Amino acid sequence: MTAVAARILDGATVAAALRASVQPDVEQFTAATGRPPALGIVLVGEDPGSEIYVKTKVKAGGESGLKVDLIRLAATATLDELLAVVDRLNRSPEHDGILVQSPLPPAMGRDAAQRVFDAVDPAKDVDGFHPVNVGRLTQGRPNLAPCTPSGIIAMLDHFGIAIAGARAAVIGRSDIVGKPMALLLLRRDATVTICHSKTAAIAAVSAEADIVVVAIGRAGFVTPDFIKPGATVIDVGTNRITDRAAAAAILGASSPRLDAFDRRGSLVLGDVHPAVAEVAGALSPVPGGVGPLTIAMLLKNTLAAAEARTAAV
Amino acid sequence: MTAVAARILDGATVAAALRASVQPDVEQFTAATGRPPALGIVLVGEDPGSEIYVKTKVKAGGESGLKVDLIRLAATATLDELLAVVDRLNRSPEHDGILVQSPLPPAMGRDAAQRVFDAVDPAKDVDGFHPVNVGRLTQGRPNLAPCTPSGIIAMLDHFGIAIAGARAAVIGRSDIVGKPMALLLLRRDATVTICHSKTAAIAAVSAEADIVVVAIGRAGFVTPDFIKPGATVIDVGTNRITDRAAAAAILGASSPRLDAFDRRGSLVLGDVHPAVAEVAGALSPVPGGVGPLTIAMLLKNTLAAAEARTAAV
Question: Given an 8 Å threshold on Cβ–Cβ distance, is B138 in contact with A175?
Fold first, then answer.
């Protein structure tokens, strides 16, 4: 078999283009209203992953001319305390967007995240998680859409990958990626199949698709038999692997990425097996794929929320 | 070719079973609260089709022990007048459900229906068309779901047709049938593909499915090549045909249904071609299929809204 290397879809390039396209509108908004679009980020506790995400969001927002306020609550904060912060940001005239960083401390209860997302003013819901925004997305109406799937649409557009008329498989049906991804692809006239843990013959179903988006949370789950030769594959998985043997089984014993494992004691692997690069026509890898797009779309959503709030006044 | 006749899924049987299952709960609600669950139906103008639908809904509601109030507005009513009626029903303590019959007079404007659906209190939205209910449906949370797709789920369950693990094709992506149908099938663990006017090779895509739900609004569109032998086919189309030659082309020149055409000057045909009955394993036909289920689910939604409102007090 001749190994054909897939075209690698570089997320950083797309994110940079998105942020460059947002910048003039941010400047115009700031000049017109006398204040920059502003995002309030709420971080509860000190989860190391969340610290990194939030730091990146604050930095990216600042670079694009947005005001980003980071509100920290102790890991011992109650759900009521968190809801009070959300309420204050809802009523704040100068905050256009609100983001509550996941995950929340388990002590807040199982449905805490949903209660918090439901409490965010839909007009400031830059994550697109409020039921009213999910409903508007489903209905194909203008709205604040979840950042990762919107970023993937932007990536496909950036690289000229046709969506209308294509068959698309979305593997995974989470509220954050899978379902909104399917709805956005449908809005763009793809023929969409949603696959999940209960899908029979999932590889064969996936192999019908021209575009495969994978967000199922299982390292290396999507192997070459899932992919029609030449298809576009978008990996959304971020699985932290702490077992060296498991990492080696997926990456191959001679992978240079194992050196990184040896330095750090862990590695983030996507849901897509590396061998897929030999079958796919185009591949958005992990790392290097959709990560920076999510942040770029967050900035775009904050700007959109700011413009809509100003227009509504 | 040997013609194998599909099992006919009789909607009236399922609707009767649903209504019988609702009745004791209606009686219990009425005994406990001193009033029956109440539905307000708003009818604007005198569209003959709407008159029939509304009459059927009023009759079915009464037979099940619900109170159904029909509020009529003249065909010349303005959108503001209609919104004022909706607002009154929203605030009415004794109305649990609100249904505004479609279609609205064209003079009300293109987005009138959406503005009206958005104005209905989500807790009384027995049609399930409000964005917040659409969002909750998408998120897989308990909610008031649109009546026709919920009725189809009830029909599949009634006849013991397995949904979990099945491949399902939904042909048509309307907000009223196609999209909520896909989401309800997904919630029940089917692997769902949504097909539409832009789907390439639509017959081949449909022919992968074990369950095909058709709501595309084109008489006889789904021909035997769309159907895997033995699959279950649910026809949701109601296309009024006024051209006898067109009806004969679909039904066959010797069809006894043409006698009905000759008596009435028109005929309602489904989206599924009659020849599909020779390929499908089970078929919900038009007429005789999902029609009465929609009304049964409306009664069920009204009861559910009444119970939820009482529990919330």
Answer: yes
Task: Give the tens place of pLDDT for each residue, B201-260.
Answer: 999 999 999 999 999 999 999 999 999 999 999 999 999 999 999 999 999 999 999 999
Shortest distance between the Cα of A118 and any Cα of chain B, in A, equals 10
Is residue B101 annotated as a catalytic residue, yes or no? yes
Contact B200, B190 (CB under 8 A): no
- State the smallest CA–CA distance between residue B176 and chain A in angstroms: 10
Please state the rounded mean pLDDT for residues A239-251.
96
pLDDT above 50: residue A1:
no
Question: What is the SS3 string spanning A89-109?
Answer: HHHCCCCCEEEECCCCCHHHC
Per CATH, A33-121 and A146-293 having the same topology is answered yes
Does the annotation count B127 as an active-site position? yes
The fold of the B145-291 domain, in CATH, is Rossmann fold (3.40.50)
Mean pLDDT for all residues in chain B: 96
Return the domain boundaries, chain A. 33-121, 146-293
Which residues, at least 6 apart from A175, have a Cβ–Cβ distance to it below 8 Å?
A: A129, A134, B138, B139, B140
The whole-chain average pLDDT of chain A stands at 96
Pairing of strands A167-171, A67-73: unpaired
Q: B33-121 in CATH: which number?
A: 3.40.50.10860
Which CATH entry fits the domain spanning A146-293: 3.50.50.60, 3.40.250.10, 3.30.1330.40, 3.40.50.720? Answer: 3.40.50.720
Q: Give the mutation candidate from A117, A130, A137, A138 for the B interface (greatest B CB count, under 10 A).
A: A138
Number of Cβ atoms within 10 Å of the Cβ of A163: 20
B210 catalytic? Reply is: no
Name the pLDDT band for A3 (thresholds 50, 70, 90): low
Residues from chain B that touch A186, judged by Cβ atoms under 8 A, are: 173, 179, 194, 196
